[in-house]
Specification:
The complex is a heterodimer of chains A (432) and B (85). Chain A is α+β, with helices and mostly antiparallel strands and 432 residues long. Chain A has 3 domains: 154 residues, Alpha-Beta Plaits (2-Layer Sandwich), CATH 3.30.70.2500; 162 residues, 2-Layer Sandwich (Sulfite Reductase Hemoprotein, domain 1); 76 residues, Alpha-Beta Plaits, CATH 3.30.70. Chain A has a 5-stranded mixed β-sheet. A 4-stranded antiparallel β-sheet of chain A has the order 1-2-4-3, with helices on one face. In chain A, strand 3 and strand 4 form a beta hairpin. The termini of chain A are far apart. Chain B has 85 residues and is of the alpha+beta class. Chain B has one domain: Arc Repressor Mutant, subunit A (Orthogonal Bundle). Helix content of chain B is 44%, strand content 13%. Chain B has 3 helices and 3 strands; from the N terminus they run αβααββ. A 3-stranded antiparallel β-sheet of chain B has the order 1-3-2. In chain B, strand 2 and strand 3 form a beta hairpin. In chain B, helix 1 packs across helix 3 and helix 2 packs across helix 3. The longest helix of chain B is centred in the N-terminal third of the chain and has 16 residues. Chain B starts with a helix and ends in a 17-residue tail after the last strand. Classes of the chains: A alpha+beta (432), B alpha+beta (85).
């Protein structure tokens, strides 16, 4: 192997001085151990970008593997003479297993493969959720694709105007609160929508994320066009003995998560009852009993998080379906909005798939170029989307609070007498 | 419209767009607008099959994807070829 050339990188080196482990150290250690010029060059280019305060990646240009419209993102340096070994530095997105459970041997194989065919730099995980393999050249792409598919049994993830790699929280694999089997749902959807994942189908990107409970550990409500969040529709289960144990100090609140310093004795009124957003809880000091008015509960999970041994989500479990979250391009960032307040989710999840098809059919036809689903909903109006597009009935759960966002409009045929009825005559009979 | 006729139609749209001062790369949405009497999903499937057959190619920035005719306009790595040593 020829000589490798290290660039002068004072600004990058400065990053090593902070309190946290630095990627600069990691990359240099690896580069020196493996004599990888690409790693030195990437640091050199980054130094230059820091100095000039502008990117030195060229825009756009497709690279890909045969038959797939996504999964590989082309990157080319505009400083090809200075950094020849990163003239092409493509990113490969690899579909992560549901909830990101790996066998260590799979990770070892993946790293060996990337050591051989790429820069060796990886990112576990990108904000897309995928495994990100950073830095390879066009000639290696088909080999990488073959190795991933045939040896590691892994697939490329989504990029471009495709369905992006669906993502979920750890769900039932580790969490007792999970109301739905998030991993199974993600696996089912990934297998069912292979075509949408790998071949461009939409006006723009489309993301599906599934969280098992309203704690929403994958932030589905903020990051996905189609958010599925586990919930329940019966009562929160209460173990009154355990509640008393929390109040008596025998059990640690938040399962001991905040025990690194002394917060004083647990105060159920201050830490649970008063923090309930809908004020639906009551602690009877005399009887030593906790009451919850479940009809008012909005599933914020706070009380369950604080007293996990005393309270659990109810038994009638399913999911709430929300749509339309996005990061800012048009109109700023927005959260998903509730479309279906409760849906039972059982394999093979046909109800969920059919809903997705309905949404896609409309969005594919009426969405504009580079318009996210949330923007389409805003453009046509939430009422039209719910009633005309999805054929659903407006529900109280669609409204944030009465009279603040009254987007439910009546149609003429639904109003007795239509638009032309005699209002004066009507008011004679209904004076208020 | 059967699949072969649809593919034919898609190729016609591309040839028309690429000829003269037209665009060499278009969005799937534009393609669907040009062929209003076919289902958007069928157009997507047909266009993706054409890519598999090598008659069309994808052009992507990583965030969104366009379709183009191979060899027309900016190529796969146009302007990005490694400089000759």
């Amino acid at each position: 192997m020829g000589e490798v050339k290290k660039h002068e990188t004072p600004l990058m080196d400065d990053l090593k001085s902070g309190p946290w482990p630095s990627f600069v150290d990691d990359i240099y250690n690896y580069a020196e151990k493996k004599k990888k010029q690409a790693c030195f060059d990437i640091m050199g280019q980054m130094e230059l970008s820091y100095k000039n305060r502008e990117t030195h990646w060229k825009h756009g240009g497709i690279v890909g593997v045969f038959g797939y419209g996504g999964g590989v993102i082309g990157r080319y340096s505009d400083q090809q003479e200075m950094f020849p070994s990163i003239w092409a530095f493509h990113t490969v997105r690899v579909n992560q297993p549901a909830a990101k459970w790996y066998h260590s041997s799979a990770l070892r194989k993946l790293c060996d493969m990337w050591d051989h065919r790429g820069s060796g730099i990886v990112n576990f995980h990108g904000s897309t959720g995928d495994i990100i393999l950073l830095g390879t050249v066009t000639e290696q792409l088909e080999y990488i694709f073959y190795d991933l598919g045939h040896q590691l049994k892994m697939d490329l993830g989504g990029s471009g105007s495709n369905l992006r790699t669906p993502e979920c929280c750890m769900g039932m694999s580790r969490c007792e609160w999970s109301c739905i089997d998030t991993q199974d749902i993600i696996y089912e959807l990934t297998m069912a929508f292979q075509d949408e994942l790998h071949r461009p189908a939409f006006p723009y990107k489309f993301k599906i994320k599934v969280s098992g409970c309203p704690n929403d550990c994958v932030a589905a409500i903020a990051r996905s066009d189609f958010s599925v969040i586990g919930t329940w529709r019966d009562k929160i289960k209460i173990d009154q003995d355990a509640v008393r144990a929390y109040v008596g100090g025998e059990l640690k609140p938040n399962a001991g998560a905040h025990s690194d310093r002394d917060w004083g004795p647990f105060d159920i009124k201050k830490e649970v009852i008063d923090l309930c957003p809908t004020k639906c809880m009551f602690w009877d000091e005399g009887q030593k009993k906790l009451y919850i008015n479940d009809a008012e509960c909005n599933r914020c999970m706070h009380c369950i998080n604080v007293m996990p041994e005393a309270l659990w989500p109810g038994d009638d479990r399913g999911a709430v379906i929300l749509m339309g979250a996005k990061a800012p391009i048009l109109d700023g960032a927005q959260l998903s909005t509730v479309i279906i307040p409760f849906m039972k989710l059982e394999p093979p999840y046909d109800n969920l798939k059919n809903l997705l098809y309905k949404v896609w059919d409309y969005w594919m036809e009426h969405g504009k170029n580079r318009e996210r689903l949330g923007e389409t909903i805003q453009r046509i109006g939430l009422n039209r989307f719910i009633v005309d597009v999805l054929g659903l009935k407006p529900l109280p759960q669609h409204v944030k609070e009465p009279r603040s966002n009254p987007y439910i409009f009546w149609k003429e045929e639904e109003v007795e007498g239509g638009w032309t009825r005699d209002v004066a005559e009507f008011r004679k009979r209904h004076p208020a | 419209m059967d699949k072969e006729a649809l593919k034919q139609k898609i190729m016609e749209v591309f040839q028309k767009k690429a000829g003269g001062a037209g665009k060499s790369k278009i969005y799937l949405k534009d393609l669907q607008r040009e062929i209003p009497d076919a289902n958007p999903r069928d157009i997507k499937n047909a266009a993706n099959e054409l890519v598999k057959e090598g008659k069309l190619e994808y052009f992507s920035t990583g965030s969104t994807v366009m379709y183009g005719l191979p060899g027309v306009g900016m190529g796969l790595e146009a302007g990005m070829e490694k400089p000759e040593e």
